[in-house]
Amino acid sequence: MNAPVSKEPLDARDRPARLTVGVVGAGRVGPALAASLQLAGHRPVAVSGVSDASRRRAAELLPDVPVVEPAEVLARAELVLLTVPDDVLPTLVEGLVETGAVRPGQLLVHTSGRYGTRVLDPALRAGALPLALHPAMTFTGTAVDVQRLAGCSFGVTAPEELRLAAEALVIEMGGEPEWIAEESRPLYHAALALGANHLVTLVAQSMELLSKAGVAAPDRMLGPLLGAALDNALRSGDAALTGPVARGDAGTVAAHVGELRAHAPQAVAGYLAMARATADRALAHGLLKAEQAEALLVVLAADQDARPTGPGGPGRGES
Known about the structure:
The protein has helices at about 30-40, 50-60, 70-75, 90-100, 120-125, 145-150, 165-170, 185-210, 220-235, 245, 250-265, 270-285, 290-305; strands spanning about 20-25, 45-50, 80, 105-110, 130-135, 155, 175-180. By secondary structure, the chain is an alpha/beta fold. A 7-stranded mixed beta sheet has the order 2-1-3-4-5-6-7. The protein is elongated and about 65 Å long. About 35% of the residues are buried.
């Protein structure tokens, strides 16, 4: 088991030297991390970006830092942030190595949650120092992201000899390093996506439905409710489950599904999936009695069987 990360001030020997920083991929993440490193005394020197939006982000968060080609970013920087989409990362690394852009001793950091450091093996063989530092945060592409890094957890994976340097960089950005084993990265990332990404979809659907129900300010109505639900869930886990599914109110659930089918059919599948998952967890933790769960699951199964089998429905690819 890995020892917990120390919260004591970093010894000078553990702090990375002041580094020149480059960013390959000026999406929402890279410029924010580089700006945070700049606040810690490092010096951004180059950034690459293709779209107009990426160039605007770079100009806002890293003013006066030149926008150049990826190979030139690596030529100028001692610490390079590879902040590109997951599916692009392996090809990018291989291409940079094949063109000779990677230098021995260069810190190469990617921010993908999915990958550990094995994706950087081609660069490692070229002499680079590989780090995987994934901020567990949603990014807007604006200056507010730099503030949000304070206290943000980072999923850290690195060779043992680079562990202190990796953790030091995270702490300098205001983050909290959390060591993730190489083989656990996909599960770690799936957990974050399940919580954060799907939450946005659920909230957006809820606001749309409230608008259809005549609520003038859905965001104001949901804010206190969702804030309390999130706080309760983080404090108490499954013990925080409430609502008709956790209570076993099968009639109410059936009414919900009927209303959704009439007014927002695109939300039915998500409601059913979450209702089943909620029922399973409530039953497993003793919040839902077996007879209540049986009645509830009958309603959910009956509705599932009633779904249309047209294009995109269960008739496609299902037995």
